[in-house]
Amino acid sequence: MNEPLEQLRKELQYEKTNRCVQCGYCLPVCPTYITMRKETHSPRGRINLVKMVGEGRITDLSVLEEPLNLCLGCRACETACPTGVEYGAILEASRAALARRKKFSVPVRLLRRTMFKKVFSSKRIMKFAGSMLWLYQKSGLQKAARVSGALEKLPYHLGVFTEAIPPLERGRIPVRIKARREKKYTVAFFTGCVMDAVFQRINRLSVLLLAEAGCDVIVVPGQTCCGALHAHAGEVEEARRLAKQNIAAFEKEDVDFVVNNAGGCGAILHEYGHLLGKEEEWKERAESFAAKSRDISQVLLACGGLKNLKPRSGERVTYQRSCHLTNVQKVVNEPLALLKSVPGIEFVEMEEAQMCCGSAGIYNIVHYNEAMDILDEKMKHTKATGASAVITTNPGCLLQMKLGIERENLSGSMRAVHLVEYLAEAAGIS
């Protein structure tokens, strides 16, 4: 075998493709296979393409681009797989190999460099963007843009998503807050980049709920973006840099857990050990950080849940599962247990509950039509529950489900809300 092919095999993590026996158990749980009905847009089809590249049977790597780009990365296939194929690792490695070789146009290269290396990783820029969006909502500009039709002219259907963003909140989250009842744990709170800029209210309520449950909470300075968007786009080196910055920041505090409230962020925090596993200096530190990483639902339940919740008699509720919370972090029962602890609600599980909603980071922006096809499938099952509240645990899911409710003309009878917001309502925390 020549050296270039050997190197390519290592980059693609070719050896991991050999665990796939092409059984097809992944097909019924793959959103893109369900909506597109193409073998190349199924997990086993994508793995087979990577395998053929690694074996030299395909020499043009551009063949991988569309199948890999149209993958949501929901990793439901990993949960369904009987042989333990590490699909996420194969996908991440293959996307990175493509990104290293692709000759982007100058505008696209500049945009990627700006967004991935300057914007998402900068608290200052992200907060400024959030403040501008808050001003846009508060000043009447949003109403004017809606009436004038300007929103329809924005690229990538951004006007649609702008309308789905809930009212923003500006202010300061307490940096340190003491437990409001018997202390159970000391935790550090991960604010994220988009969560901090756009969903600051959910972050603030998260800190207050943790304190209410019995946690001393520290919002660690120096933390940054989790790196998930970078890893998904093949910018793995930048994702590693952000991971190191976060690990170094959180190591300065002696805490029991590092708590997040976004399924997508939590997934990559959970996998920092994998991300930095080949760097001797960081491997052990990354694994230690990942071992402390928890979704907020896990910590609230570990504290014994929330007390004195107000009854919400007769409210029918369903739960939209975050793919990365379910398939990567393997957090399945905790959000449901917290939901069911709210007195008086009627919980209805939707059919195909594990199916992705089509958000997947920025997938619904860059692949709008494909994402809407997946969302329409999800909404069939959501509508059938007859629920008045759809609970989510990830910001992308929240916006996507809000959009789905609008597309189905259900905004008068159904709402989408983050689990943290719903629990805060029941706890009387505003």
TrEMBL record:
It catalyses: glycolate + A = glyoxylate + AH2; (R)-lactate + A = pyruvate + AH2. SUPFAM superfamilies: 4Fe-4S ferredoxins (SSF54862). Its EC number is 1.1.99.14. It holds the Pfam family Fer4_8. One of its GO terms (molecular function) is glycolate dehydrogenase activity. Residues 10-39, 61-85 form the 4Fe-4S ferredoxin-type domain. Keywords: 4Fe-4S, Electron transport, Iron, Iron-sulfur, Metal-binding, Repeat, Transport. Binds 2 [4Fe-4S] clusters. It comes from the Bacteria. The keyword Iron applies. This is Glycolate oxidase iron-sulfur subunit. It comes from Aneurinibacillus thermoaerophilus.
